[in-house]
Each structure stands twice: as C-alpha cells, then as structure tokens.
Amino acid sequence: MSKNSTSKYAFIDRDGTLIYEPPEDFQIDSLEKLNIFPGVIEGLKKLLKDGFRLILISNQDGLGTKSFPKEDFEKPQNEMLRILKEEGIEFEEIFICPHLPEDNCECRKPKTGLTDEFIRSANINTKESFVCGDRDSDKKFANNLGLKFVEPQLLFGRNAVVVRNTNETKIKLQLNLDGTGLYDIDTGIGFLDHMLELFSRHSLIDLKIEAKGDLKTDEHHTVEDIGITLGQALKLALGNKKGIQRYGFLLPMDESLAEIAMDLGGRSYLVWNAEFKRERIGDMPTELFEDFFQAIADNLEANLHINLKYGRNEHHMAEAIFKAFAKTMRFSAEKDPRTQNLLPTTKGKL
C-alpha cells in the first residue's frame, strides 16, 4: 500500500453487518429473508458524505452449489443493491468468496486473495481506511490488510432485526436501542401490545413488531416467542457491551410498586415474585407474564429479578412491571462516555 494515500476506503461485510443473517442456515437465499438493519442506510450515507469509497466483501459458503444456487443469492443481493442505489449508495467494488471453509481457498476472509489485486492498484489511505464486520474473521481480515477494524454498532448504531418463523408463530422484530421511544406493534394480543408500547416509550427504544401466532389455539406460543425475539434483538443491539452501565429500578404506578434489578453480564436467570389473582387482563393470560420475561432473560443472557412489591389494580401492577423493566433496560444499556472503550467487568469478557 502506498504511503502517498489519497482515498479513504470502507471494506464492509454484508451478512450480519448490513443485513440480518438467519441463524438456521446463515443464508439469504430469498427476498423474504432480506432484512436491512435499521441505521444502515443512514450510516452508509454518512460514510459517503465523509469521503469514503465503499467496498462490499462477503464470504458466501457454497455459493453456486445445489444447496445455494447462484440465482437464489442474486435475487436478494440485487434487491439490496437496488434499495441502496435509490438512496444514493453504491459500492465501488463487490467481492464475493463462494467457497466453503474446507476448500481452503485463498479468497475467503480472513485471507486477502479477493482484494490483493485491488489493494495493489488502489491508492489507499491506510490511516483512515477500515474494515467493518460482525465476525472475528473480519477483524483478522483487517489485520491482514494492515487496516483498523470498526464494529458495525459504531457505524450504524445499536440496531437489530430478528425474524423467527415456527409452525406456531411468524415474528419480525426491529429495534433501535438508542431511539426516542417510537413504536409500531401488532402482536394480535391487545394488552401485550399496550405493555410493549409502554416498554418502548419509557425505555426510549424504538420498537417495531409484526407477529402472527396460533391464537385460536392459545396465547402461549405467541407471548413466549415474542419474548425470545425481543431478548435476542436486545442482545444483538448491545454488541460487545463496551461502555454500558450493565446494572439496572424501582417504579411506582399509582398504588402499585415494582422493583426490577438487572445484570447484563451474560448469565441468564429470572427471579419472579409477582402474583396476579385475575386469570386475564384484557386478552392477556396473566400466567404468561413470567414466561415472557423468562424468554427475555434466557435470550438476552441477563440476570433479571422482578419483584412486585404491592398493588391493588392488576392492570396497574402489570404496567408497573413493564415500565420498571423499560427504565432498567434504558439505564443498563446506557453508555458512559468515561468508559466507552471498557467492558464493565474485571474479567475482560461479558
């Protein structure tokens, strides 16, 4: 790389960085699976405004094989590029490695074979250019190129998309951890919608949920699966957790008082001390509140203690719990500028 560099380049990974990567097969092979992360378009626009030239580089395991035909890759890929182009965003180069790890090729990240020729011919500002991705292979790729590594949250914000499709439910959840409390929620269970709207507004987490479940059978699958996706999305959005407060709230709601303590330290556990006498509040079975928060604790990998100290009106009691959880989440996820590059632990890992 020339020392007389003139151009700033951003080498950006695709799956898990720009778009949601489904954990079932790690393939985006249909338009239905294409979900661009919130914050990506704004982040890419800012890079262009700041004078960066964009390079897309991605490992696509087994591309061109029977299990991953090329045309299945191209449909969502072309749609993503079309959406970005409409926003004035284009990549100068796109590099795709189609090989499997066992192929031991020279072009699969973290190896640099895909970009070697480009690097030799481009006049790169090595001090300001960087690699952005969600995996260790991206970090090693940056090191192999002699460039700095930048995590996606720094470019695109603490956002997440999670899609969960089962025989009982179909759920798509999007959130922005550093939002303003905007929400668009449709779970099919009116009282749960109300509780999640409260959570969004009081945590300042922008939240969009589209859920279809087998409500004719029972509410359980829908409530639990929404808890699972919310926990997963919060975990994704928190990223490496550097700079967060980590620990979480005592919150009154008229005659009710809820106390919630949280630790985002990576160990899941739920303590639930809340008793409801009514079988339902609106269309929400009260026994499912505990299942909902258990699913969140498990998938967020959080230690969560929920204590409803007292209350008379059970609607208010439920509201107190969800509002206290919202405030606890807001405080625990908040970043302290004094510790922005530090993990809130002496162990070195959360």
List keywords for this structure.
350 residues, alpha/beta, Rossmann fold, Ribosomal Protein S5, domain 2, 4-stranded mixed β-sheet, 15 strands, globular
Large-scale geometry: globular
CATH homologous superfamily placement of the largest domain:
Imidazole glycerol phosphate dehydratase, domain 1
Number of strands: 15
Task: Indicate the mean pLDDT.
Answer: 92
Strand content: 15-25%
Low-confidence stretches: none
What can be said about the biggest beta sheet? Answer: 5 strands, parallel
**What is the CATH fold-level name of the largest domain?**
Ribosomal Protein S5, domain 2
CATH class designation of the largest domain: Alpha Beta
**Helix content bin:** 25-40%
CATH architecture of the largest domain: 2-Layer Sandwich
Strand order across the biggest sheet? Answer: 3-2-1-4-5
Count, helices: 9
What does this protein structure show overall?
The chain has 350 residues and is an alpha/beta fold. The protein folds into 2 domains: 8-156, Rossmann fold, CATH 3.40.50.1000; 159-333, 2-Layer Sandwich (Ribosomal Protein S5, domain 2). It has 9 helices and 15 strands. It has helices at residues 40-49, 70-86, 116-121, 136-145, 152-156, 190-203, 220-238, 288-300, 314-333, and strands spanning 8-12, 52-59, 93-97, 130-132, 148-150, 159-165, 169-176, 183-186, 206-213, 250-253, 256-263, 269-273, 280-281, 284-285, 303-310. The strands form 4 sheets. It has a 5-stranded parallel beta sheet with strand order 3-2-1-4-5, sandwiched between helices. It has a 4-stranded mixed beta sheet with strand order 6-7-9-8, with helices on one face. Strands 10-11-15-12 form a 4-stranded mixed beta sheet. The longest helix is centred in the last third of the chain and has 20 residues, at 314-333.
